[in-house]
Design goal:
Length: 274
Amino acid sequence: MCISTAEAAFSGTILYCGRQHHPLHGLIHVMGYQNTAVNLSDGPNAMLLHLPTRQLTPEQFVSAGRTGDVLHRMVAAVETVPAEDDGIVWMCGDPQHVQVFDHDVYTVLLAADPTLIPAALSQVPPHRRPDINPDLLRFYADHFPDHTIAVCCFDNADAQHAKPLLVWYPPHDPDRLVLPALDSHTGEVPDLDAAVAVDHWVLLSTDQASSGWGVPVDYPRNMRHSLRAFLPDTVVGRYYGQGRTLLNGDFAIGHDDLLTGDLDRIKRLQPTRC
């Protein structure tokens, strides 16, 4: 899973989305993303993520610090639960500004209008500065209006050492949790009619669940409070992989469905066709 700006291989993807009431920021979603990336191009590369919010700043990217295995700890919690058949169902910042900043091994560009990204690439260090297909940026502009696009630029030397990306945001729809999972590893526009190989852990949480919902996550006792405040006590999750393919798209579930703990209610979500 991933959209890349040039040829790459991604494996072992972990996707997390949690819904919570934060004491300072109110009702938010927290997205977590991590995988093993191998850059197969001759130069720099980048991953693109589309987030259902227009209110996103560099300060909303949460550093994992010394706890770089936080998403793996969530996987360790849920993988002890017996797996079931997924029964998956198909479903068809300032907008004139690009924010550029460093986060972990990435230089990140945030844009509500992805067509503005090429003009901001000069702010990316040369060893991380990718060439981006204009058709790919137009695809995001056409299919994901009112989203923020995050372009996470990396070089070959750093790709293997990335910590998880963790970011919080006020979502368009607080009652639908969406995990970006569109797939294209060549720098070209994703084929929405393609069946793509999957190798994903999908993890979900909500602070509105009743007692006994989900499984507890074992975090280090010395974890920074600023990080712990964005992480769930319990999670549910499912692995999608083992040679399977799914129609290209994202994962999504309604909050009411999540509260039941029935992960068969996770759907495959496709962007609106132009």
